[in-house]
Amino acid sequence: MTAGDSLVKPFASPDATLGRLDAAATATVIAAASDVALILDRDGVIRDLAFGSTELSKEDFAHWLGRPWSETVTLDSRPKIEALLRDAAAHTAPRSRQVNHPSPRGVDLPVSYSAIQVGTEGRVVAVGRDLRSIAALQQRLVEAQQSMERDYWRLRHVETRYRLLFKLASEAVLIVDAGTLKVVEANPSAAQCVSAGERRLPGRALLELFDTEGAAAVQTMLASVRVAGRADDVRARLGDRAQQFVVSASLFRHENTSLFLIRLSNVPADAVASALPQSKAALLAAIAEGAPDAMVVTQADGRVLAANAAFVELAQLATEEQARGESLERWLGRPGVDLNVMLTNLRQHGSVRLFATTLRGEYGADAEVEISASSIAQADEPCLGFTIRNVERRLQTDARAGRELPRSVDQLTELVGRVPLKELVREATDLIERLCIEAALELTQDNRASAAEMLGLSRQSLYVKLRRYGMGDLADSDT
To answer: What is the pTM of this model?
Structure first.
């Protein structure tokens, strides 16, 4: 609030409505009608003051008495005090002005004053309103505006990053209106696949981009996505091109509008079809693709040939193509250990059952899984099949409960104060070491070479510890 922001309009007929008020009544009215009221002499010196606000009375402004009014305010407010006194002496219509009083609490106190000269002795009555609540609201408004500005620019940066990814993506991507099935936006890769300029695609009907058979398949897929939220990918040709594309779609909403995200992948013939027996390829591929458990087919060295949708989701991948050619070890919890242990058992025994480990997603999500695997030696090229089951939600079983720490751990803690710490630590170390060895032997199906590798021990060191704890039949040859 600045000078001239408000005018004080007097009563129309004070003599008739107020009568003759004595000094005590007048003082009461002035104090009740304001947060702070000052009585000043003709020189602007404060001779009396009253507070109508409990908060202001706590500010300890009693030392104002006897001091010029201009000395009780900050330097930048002194010209406003002089203007208030000058207007009061000139008997002009009083205007309210905001001044700031320095406060003992360290924060300036904003007050809006109006001043008027009364009587014949040049005395001036200044009434003020505490503006701290208004200042607090203004500060909150400024902070809210700044927060909105920060959110706005953060959203702009996010949008810029996503648009950059959209432009640079090697996969063809189309944004399609779900109601009209017209292309809203397309990245350069999509324009190149359709053999059209990037600016020519928006506004075109999506189904016009495909041949007759492909348009029907895409339309059926989009109907399923609109109803169920997802659908199997379909193969379709763009126009009269001989090359097929795998078309996938997902539904999302933006600004109360439903849109399809259409992806076109130039995928060669399925690599796993040549590796599996021809008589069972179609059947097994259909079963594997729809299985709720993740399924992966790899080469003999663990490099992925094919993976179903459940594995793509569990590994946090966008498409199956991102997994092909990569080693399965990339997603396993113990790099350099888990896959080597399974490959060793597959070469020796042909299968692995319920191998417990963790699977890491591309974006950091970990899942407890059990892996069963088998070797497919009948194929033209030997390959391995892995079934990966997420067991995070499984209830605790008796077998798992049996692997919990024995009661002796609690007994060890009860010996504190009665047995030297050195002996307690040695007993606890032996207990944990034995449990780890048992777990490693269980995970590797008693393959001691693999167990030693998992524990980071040499085979001789593992044998020494097995003899020490009396575990296993050491007379048998290591499998």
So the answer is: 0.35
